[in-house]
Automatic annotation (TrEMBL), chain A:
One of its GO terms (biological process) is sulfate assimilation. It is an enzyme of class 2 (transferase). The lineage of its organism: Bacteria, Pseudomonadati, Pseudomonadota, Alphaproteobacteria, Hyphomicrobiales. It holds the Pfam family GTP-eEF1A_C. It catalyses: sulfate + ATP + H(+) = adenosine 5'-phosphosulfate + diphosphate; adenosine 5'-phosphosulfate + ATP = 3'-phosphoadenylyl sulfate + ADP + H(+). Belongs to the TRAFAC class translation factor GTPase superfamily. Classic translation factor GTPase family. CysN/NodQ subfamily. NCBIfam families: CysN, PRK05124.1, small_GTP. This is Sulfate adenylyltransferase subunit 1. APS kinase catalyzes the synthesis of activated sulfate. GTP binds at residues 39-46, 118-122, 173-176. The gene is cysN.
UniProtKB/TrEMBL annotation, chain B:
Heterodimer composed of CysD, the smaller subunit, and CysN. It catalyses: sulfate + ATP + H(+) = adenosine 5'-phosphosulfate + diphosphate. Its EC number is 2.7.7.4. It comes from Sinorhizobium americanum. It is an enzyme of class 2 (transferase). One of its GO terms (biological process) is sulfate assimilation. NCBIfam families: CysD (TIGR02039), PRK05253.1 (NF003587), PRK12563.1 (NF009214). Keywords: ATP-binding, Nucleotide-binding, Nucleotidyltransferase, Transferase. Residues 1-22, 295-317 are annotated as: Disordered. This is Sulfate adenylyltransferase subunit 2. HAMAP family: Sulf_adenylyltr_sub2 (MF_00064). Pathway: Sulfur metabolism; hydrogen sulfide biosynthesis; sulfite from sulfate: step 1/3. Residues 45-271 form the Phosphoadenosine phosphosulphate reductase domain.
Amino acid sequence: MTAPALANAALDETAVALPSQEPARVARDSRPLRLITCGSVDDGKSTLIGRLLWDTKAVKEDQAASLQRDSKGKQNDLGLPDFALLLDGLQAEREQGITIDVAYRYFSTDKRSFIVADTPGHEQYTRNMATGASTADLAVLLVDARVGLLEQTRRHATIATLMGIKQFVLAVNKIDLTNYDRSRFEQISHEFKELALSLGVRQVTAIPVSALKGENVVYDGRASMPWYEGPTLIEVLELATTRSAQTVGFRLPVQRVSRPGESFRGYQGTVAGGSVKPGDSVVILPSGMVANVTKIVTFDLVRNAAVAGDAITLVLDRQVDVSRGDVIATIDSQPMTGLAFDAQLVALQAEGIQPGKRYWLKSGSRRQRVQVQPISQLDLKSGKWNHADELPMNAIGKVHLAFDEQAIFDAYEQNRTTGAFILIDPDTNNTVAGGMISAKRAAIGGIHTEDSRVILSLPADLADQLMATEIFAGRREDAEIRRVTAARAIEIIDVIDE
Amino acid sequence: MPHTHPETELHNPQSTKPPLDPHLKALENEAIHIFREVAAEFERPVMLYSIGKDSSVLLHLARKAFYPGRIPFPLLHVDTGWKFREMIAFRDEMVEKYDLDLVAHTNPRGAAENVTPFTHGSALYTDIMKTEALRQALDAGQYDAAFGGARRDEEASRAKERIYSFRTPDHRWDPRNQRPELWNVYNGMIRKGESVRAFPLSNWTEVDIWRYIQAEEIPIVPLYFAKKRPIVERDGMMILAEDPRLELLPGETKREEVIRFRTLGCFPLTGAIRSNATTLDDIISELETATVSERQGRAIDRDQAGSMEKKKREGYF
């Protein structure tokens, strides 16, 4: 079915006529895709999500009826109800007419199911976007085709990138109001691809969309836009990848020790990276003790392997001291342990992040005391990091973390579970920041001092390779690379060793 | 741990079930993670057990999460006294079969003042026999964490609820002031008297629940399957007419219809649907083509505008 046919059907019938009832098949051969939608009310975000729910039949008749009741006089010219009412669950929001918090929506097609984190677009709600983005595999950014990219588009893209999202869809909405202007669409998508590349994101799809008319959302808009031959939004979502493939080695943050009797001792947790099988040698961190895996126990059967995402109980071949908060990891590729780390974080509460204050840090199942030293704050307008001593609410900052006891992390770039943490204010017990580990801080003084950049003298080819990596793209401000000959690099290293 | 449990269940009959599809597996893994996290972080967890399909799934997941150990917390059933007879029978069967610790609580004020859905209206009745009763039971057990089977797809106000949902000492939920929840890192820090409601099924939809029940062969109350049953029509709902306390009003007649229930609550407030679905396959295919949401049969959601949000702020589950 094409979109105009659908729109006509809606026009012909009563205000809330549902699209024709095709049963949504439910066999799922892939994991749910988690996505976040970014954009403002003006960009038509609620209409887009409403359209997705409507055209995938996630809206039922009684919900549509109460929608009809609530949206009296607010129907648009297609006779469809005000989708924002469907989405804005809380009374306070209805009264204010804005979305104030992260809401989760569910819909599915015959290929896959989707979890949408619906977050507000207003500047003061950076925290909500960071929350929604933390679990998302993909971000849908909305712009109004008549307006083009805004400062907030850059802001949203930057936050999504920081939170580790590597797949973007740009929905150029209200394309109908530009008379389906192809050059306008191409100009906007070109600008956006430049922006995405500057952030190190390569997987970008731009789609001309009319959420109101349902063109290129679930149904194609070929009738109005014969020049567009790309996928619809739903097609992109169906084919997107989930973030299960984590390349670092096996990680099991231990949630609890199961000891139902003298004869059984198992370590329960969710595999946070890599895979494990009986016979594997593992190290228990932070103690550094080593053991071998004898069994992977689950309720259904004793398994011969477990992969990232599996909730398991691990049995080891010897008596070792393991407790909640420890990490069981592969010996070959261990996480970093140390007392000092660099991180980026988003300040989530009105009190901000205060220098020198001792917070609780929780990562995986591990909770420990940490002192946080803000270093710089990201200016979302310019993309520059400016010096900062404290971080107000909604700020994105770089910080130094100092621990009393050994901490265990991977870089967030490498592992979105063992590289992520939250900060809890011990005075209020509230969650005050979400953070991502960048690197372990070098113990050598002088090599990584505040405000000064690390100077790396590298053979030219190695320097080029390093500069092309994603990790480096995010940290250009931190290091200066000097291209030297291989012989000169050896000389420099010899000097450091002495 | 304040609750001590003898060891049991060290042997599980090797299952011959096919493996779960990746979608259900992901949901199951997430729920097990939440169960373990809450059990490890809180001193006195409890699981709210309403006997319905979502509770059946929740119970199954709890057994999986702690296997080969026992479920390390009790189950709490708030019994209004007006549940379907078959629900209570099913509950007792489960307690026996899985060796569960069950705490059943009925608000004594209900019995003393003879509060019924007929005499006090659904709003006041629910307030006293469910909301107030739940608060009493949670206070009496000094529980600091309570698992519930709520799903975000059920109702608009639930779409924004966290997986760890913070409650004040008087059990209130403040939707404007929820703790941010990032990744799967949950903040379980509370002061004495405060508590958390934990929702392992937050990301499940109704179809997921049914497909999981089918895949895992989870027992459920037979009322979910279609059968010829006595009903009476009242306020536009078909109410099961088997309890002698249900008095027919003038003009009402009892008749038999082939019906089933999509959700289960108190029988006088729960509407049946006409259906021929006698198997899980039937139910799932009925759902795929369903045009109304599951809470449509629940009278208490429609009492007033923003009905569920108001109940939740006051401590309804």
